[in-house]
Amino acid sequence: MHEAGRALADPTAYADEHRLHESLALLRREAPVHWVEAPGYNPFWAVTRHADVMAVERDHGLFRNEPRPLLATAQFDAINRQRAEEGTGLRTLVHMDDPDHRVVRAIGADWFRPKAMRALRPRVRELARRYVDRMAELDGECDFAADIAVHFPLYVILSLLGLPESDFPRMLKLTQELFGGADEELRRGVSPEEQLAALLDFFAYFQRLTAARRAEPTEDLASAIANARVDGEPLSDLDAASYYVIIATAGHDTTSSTISGGLHALIEHPDQLARLRNDLGLMPFAADEMIRWVTPVKEFMRTAEADTEVGGVPVRAGESVLLSYPSANRDEGVFDDPFRFDVGRDPNRHLAFGFGVHYCLGAALARMEIQEFFAELLPRLRSVELAGEPELTATTFVGGLKHLPIRYTLA
């Protein structure tokens, strides 16, 4: 049981799905709210059942994002706490609680509402076609994760922000370094200082962007953030940069992981590939099933403001809980045959976008990107198979497949 709990604080466990899901199934069955003491980490409660994760998400007054919004080593926790006290730390929507969260979230909310999504859909469709065409140019074999999936949603979200295409490769590298800090292939370095350098590079880039958009406002999301006002005052450079960071990183890395993982699932379940190809009307259900299957955001943390209980287990004020989304999304009490990939799954009460006031701002955009990409790919796809071993990112926060070698034929 203790080893199962420690898996949640082991980045390599997320690169080994069999080990991860075996550990999570044991916790759901035997200790759904389990105290974890992992070497190098401050202790926490692991919350693994769907109902308990939802209960914590619902009560955002009792369970707060600050001061520990996601799992990090004790060393990083100390650094982040010091930076927060100094006013120099990252302060994204993930780090905020109400009332600040509600006010700051509203700055970008209109850009992700249904009207905005309808206006953006032609551009998303055009980009989906561009990347399926790119697959055709690669002559029947590619690393789908690295060659296709990471680029398509990156272009969508950075186009929405209004960044020049010449900067896209830099944004991709910085994102991979930020989210891949535990992955030997993706990380910038081993020490906290080296890993924080990627974040500081993000800040420097976006501080220059803020200054440019304030000097010459434009009709894009970057300008809306730069020129937003809260209580009559503009966002600080740090808060503006933090907003850009969460949009630019979470806005594409999670979707690229889902697109890669979704194609991998279709390859491994040819009956579901045939079913979806024969009935593209299932695409909305298939997209949500891919999101549930991959669950690119692995966890968020909350800290109890007062003594309470979760799933009947006492939790004291000041103790942290880890919300395990991959576990909630395989909960046998909620999903019929949860380890079956089903492109027509309905209902699908997955929690991959979170729940409550912190529900993912870009959920509608992610769904649209996934649907448009596979709606473009599947009618042209004649055959597809693995051409090597898929590789997952070592992470405890955000990730999915970093390599998916495939062989295929397109019409």
Poorly predicted regions: none
Beta-strand portion reads 5-15%
Shape: globular
Structural class: alpha+beta
* CATH class category: Mainly Alpha
- The CATH architecture category equals Orthogonal Bundle
Q: Separation of termini?
A: 50 Å
Number of strands: 14
> How is the biggest beta sheet arranged?
5 strands, mixed
> Please, what is the average pLDDT?
93
Q: What's the CATH topology label?
A: Cytochrome p450
Rg result = 21 Å
Helical run tally = 16
- In percent, how helical is the residue content? 40-55%
> What's the domain count?
1
Structural account:
- Belongs to the cytochrome P450 family.
- Keywords: Heme, Iron, Metal-binding, Monooxygenase, Oxidoreductase.
- One of its GO terms (molecular function) is steroid hydroxylase activity.
- InterPro entries: Cyt_P450, Cyt_P450_B, Cyt_P450_CS, Cyt_P450_sf.
- The protein is of the alpha+beta class.
- The chain has a single domain (2-410), classed as Cytochrome p450.
- It has 16 helices and 14 strands.
- The chain has a 5-stranded mixed β-sheet with strand order 1-2-10-7-3. A 3-stranded antiparallel β-sheet has the order 4-14-11. A two-stranded antiparallel sheet has the order 5-6.
- A hairpin with an 8-residue loop joins strand 12 (391-392) and strand 13 (401-403).
- Helix 6 (114-137) packs parallel to helix 16 (363-377), helix 8 packs antiparallel against helix 12 and helix 9 runs antiparallel to helix 10.
- The chain is globular.
- The termini are far apart.
